[in-house]
Amino acid sequence: MIFFNIIDNTLSIIESTTTRLQPNEVRAIQLLVQNSNKEINTLDLLEKGISSPNQCIGRLKQKGALFDVTYRKVVDIFGNVRHGIACYRLVGWK
After folding, report:
1. pLDDT tens string for the chain (94 positions)?
2. What is the reported pTM?
3. Cys-Cys with 65: which of 43, 51, 57, 60 at CB 3.0–4.6 Å?
4. Half-sphere exposure of 1 (CA within 13 A, CB side)
5. Under 8 Å CB-to-CB from 57, ≥6 apart: which residues?
6. What single string gives the DSSP state of each residue in 48-90?
């Protein structure tokens, strides 16, 4: 679906697309949107019930999601330092 608007001799065009998400992907997007001002890491996603976070994020990217991804040292729930943990922030959709 395409929406358009003309204001002050300027045409704005917005193209809308719809895609189906799996339940895991819906939960991941909800978490990322609710925490849009901070990063969510792989361990957080696992803790919130997202199975295979890396695959879930990969599928969301294929469906048009744009992420800022950084890799950091993160302390897990047992107090162990884990290196190279992906930290995600949802930027938008293409």
Report:
1. 667 778 888 888 877 778 899 999 999 999 999 998 899 999 999 999 999 999 999 999 999 999 999 999 999 999 999 999 999 999 988 8
2. 0.80
3. 60
4. 4
5. 28, 65, 67, 69, 86, 88
6. TT-SSHHHHHHHHHHTTEEEEEEEEEEE-TTS-EEEEEEEEEE
The owner of tokens 């001799």 is 9
Tokens of 5: 């608007």
Token pair listed for 4: 């358009």
Which residue in this structure is represented by tokens 């996603």? 45
Q: Is 94 strand, coil or helix?
A: coil
